[in-house]
Amino acid sequence: MYRNLFPSCSLPDGVTEEEYLQQLCEERGAVRYGKQMQRMDVLERLHYELDLLKCTGFTKDFLLIMGIIDYAKRNGIAVGPGRDWQPSSLVAYILGITEIDPLCYGLFFEMWLNPERVTVPSIEVDVACNHRDELLRYLRRKYGEHSVSPVRFSNWPHFPSSAPNLACAEALPKNGQAPEAKVDPSGVAISIGRLADIVPMTVDEQGHSMTQHARFLMETLGCLVLDLHPHKILAVNQSVLTLVREVKGVDISLNHLSLGDRNTYKMLGQGHILGVLPVDSSLAANTCRRIKPSRIQDIAALVAFSALGSEDYIALYAARKRQESPISYEHHLLEPILRETYGIMVYREQYVQALELLAGYTRGRADLLRRAIPKKHPLLLMANYLPAFVKDCARSSNIPEHAAIHLFNYLNIGAGHCFPKSYAVSSSLLAYQTAYLKAHYPLEFYSALLEHHCDAPEYVFRIKEEMASFSWRTM
Predict the structure, then answer these.
(1) Closest CA to 83 of 58, 56, 65, 64
(2) Domain limits for position 167
(3) Where does residue 311 rank: exposed (0-12), middle (13-18), buried (19+ CB within 10 A)?
């Protein structure tokens, strides 16, 4: 893919982009991990990702997005802990692009950058909705007023994003649902020259320029395209932190919270999720009461179930968590993969790892099969993929043919309903941070929530309703 219109990034004299990225990873890795940076799993994963970025030519993407995230953090612009597949990258975590260690959560880099199906890795940032324009102004100052412009059609004619846009789902007209920032396209194109010299331009309702080409055409032309998603939860959290600092003199670092706070999980178990989860529907509240989260993995599963609407899985997960139903596995090799979700296949990463352990597939090959399943007729799947799977299971794990056929059907039934774990983990971390603020500083939280939703009467009514039922004395 031609990338000749990519903006340049500042490099030390005599140093290539690849050398600079490695140097930054060594420096920032020492801060992230300390002495643990020398762990074999950390070093092997880091070198693997750096090598893959070098051979696919995507090193500059990381340097550019790192610069944007660094600017936001230095200037008090709240950004999310990660989005879409980005938490799958150790390089992204070390550089500070994300706040999620993929090694702790079993996230795979191949889910973002598959070496067997190389496509442009998405660059997406959740940013507080009241600061998105500020970040856009920074990009225009840095790269040139005429070289930066929103993309009129962010996804068309692309297929929808690999994960549901839960933040934007709140913009749907549901009675009493939190209204998100107005969904204009989130894509922003950046080039080294005037965009008007490259593509036809138009203007939005405010008179700002926009490209008339869709995202994929801008990428094909060689421009950098990133997504800046306006996020109201981030704006609310930032307001809460300001209030707590001004009123109580307490500075809170959300990225350094303990993930085992009892009051936070107690509140979630009571269903007080208003303003906390990406989708704070009655279904999500009921699911929270049934599951009663007690760890970050439970919140991640909650995010996935809320998006998929999997009533059967919710009931099974809750029953197994409460030890009311036995946990079973289709094959003993699946136990280490599915243990955290009580034997239920919830995530795409679990599907990929299952093929890796059962049949010896590479993660890239396994992900290709996962992508093919929803698009193939069952008979075509059986004809095109089953024979190789049966053979590979016998060779790799000594699994007999009848058991391999059963496993193939089991995996493929669930594959179409699996959720991206990287998205669930990043959403669960943001939800936990928000819930922590709500549980420990409810007055400041509700004040900020009302401030940012004052233009939505039905949602304000829901806020007042919950405030009346909130267990103030037990928090």
Answers:
(1) 65
(2) 123-249
(3) exposed
Distance separating alpha carbons of residues 463 and 454, to the nearest angstrom: 11
Place of tokens 């095109």: 384
Confidence at 399, pLDDT banded by 50, 70, 90: very high
Of 92, 120, 148, the one marking the end of a domain is 120
Of 193, 221, 249, the domain-final residue: 249
Whether residue 38 has pLDDT greater than 80: yes
Q: Is residue 326 part of a domain?
A: no
Distance CA 353, CA 116 (A): 16
The domain total for the chain is 3
Instruction: For the chain, give the percent of residues with pLDDT over 70.
Output: 90
Q: Is residue 94 part of a domain?
A: yes
Note the pLDDT of residue 455: 87
Instruction: Specify if 474 maps to a domain.
Output: no
Average pLDDT, the chain: 87
Between the alpha carbon of residue 47 and those of residues 29, 40, 43, 53, 109, the distances in Å are: 12, 11, 6, 10, 12
pTM of this structure: 0.90
Residue 145 and residue 245 in one domain: yes
- Based on the domain organization, do 134 and 239 belong to the same domain? yes
Task: Examine the domain organization and report whether 33 and 132 are in the same domain.
Answer: no
Q: In what order do the strands lie in the sheet with 201-203?
A: 124-128, 224-231, 187-190, 148-153, 209-214, 201-203
150 and 93 in one domain?
no
Q: What is the pLDDT of residues 124-169, one digit of tens each?
A: 899 999 999 999 999 999 999 899 999 876 554 433 344 444 443 3
> What pLDDT digit, counting tens, does each position of 361-392 carry?
999 999 888 887 766 666 666 677 899 999 99
Q: Are residues 130 and 241 in the same domain?
A: yes
Assess if residue 256 is contained within a domain: no
Q: How far apart are CA 464 and CA 342, in angstroms?
A: 37
